[in-house]
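dumping this here so i dont lose it
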């Protein structure tokens, strides 16, 4: 994975990357504001009678704690929101990577906008549900919550980037077997970029870097899978990239 990261870093000044970085950041910030407002609206529905027994001082502390909870949740959500945002511009990044490093590849399958939107909304729903479940079970242990939420988001982000890249060149029935063969690398990828996406300012470039890195990681994964399938059937092994676009 290290070599894939450095290859992606070497292309970060590509105009396509810089343009996509701006689009991704603006989209993610809009989503973050929407999530923040939604969380505040939900938490503000807590009846005052539920907390009035604590007295004015403790009630004030409770409201201040809500702000902390909202800030913590939005911080945890931000990496996932960056992934969701970059999904809309992924084709620009991957095409730039393939044009520079893999010019021999045939054209990838075009993804309908409807499929991109549906997959992205499903991922958003999964992220929200998973983080709510984690929060409920760890609400009184903040340290545990942060650790478990990090691991959950690492799995989700790794899986989503893999799906976004693989769906361009694999047939749908092939996506899961390739995932099973490479899940450790994909989860490690997710953990690394989940952490990177929480670093201020660095996280602005992280989604683009992650997409480019996964583009480099994915092709060897697909090659190994197709070589294994060819070996099982006794067929001649041809370049998997020639089959991925068919």
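and the seq i came up w/
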């Amino acid at each position: 994975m290290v070599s894939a990261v450095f290859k992606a870093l070497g292309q970060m000044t590509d105009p396509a990357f810089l343009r996509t970085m701006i689009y991704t950041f603006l989209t993610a910030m809009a989503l973050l504001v929407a999530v923040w407002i939604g969380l505040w609206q939900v938490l503000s529905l807590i009846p005052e009678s539920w907390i009035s027994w604590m007295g004015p001082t403790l009630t004030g502390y409770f409201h201040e704690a809500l702000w902390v909870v909202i800030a913590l949740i939005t911080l945890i959500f931000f990496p996932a929101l960056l992934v969701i945002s970059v999904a809309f511009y992924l084709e620009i990044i991957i095409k730039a990577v393939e044009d520079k490093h893999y010019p021999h590849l045939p054209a990838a399958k075009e993804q309908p906008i409807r499929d991109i939107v549906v997959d992205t909304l499903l991922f958003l729903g999964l992220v929200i549900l998973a983080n709510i479940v984690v929060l409920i079970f760890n609400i009184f242990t903040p340290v545990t919550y942060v650790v478990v939420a990090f691991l959950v988001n690492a799995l989700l982000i790794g899986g989503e980037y893999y799906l976004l890249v693989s769906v361009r060149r694999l047939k749908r029935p092939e996506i899961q077997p390739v995932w099973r063969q490479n899940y450790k690398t994909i989860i490690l990828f997710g953990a690394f970029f989940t952490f990177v996406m929480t670093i201020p300012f660095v996280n602005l470039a992280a989604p683009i870097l992650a997409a480019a890195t996964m583009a480099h990681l994915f092709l060897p994964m697909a090659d190994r899978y197709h070589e294994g399938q060819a070996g099982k059937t006794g067929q001649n092994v041809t370049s998997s990239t020639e089959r991925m676009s068919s």
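Confidence is low (pLDDT under 50) at residues 240-246.
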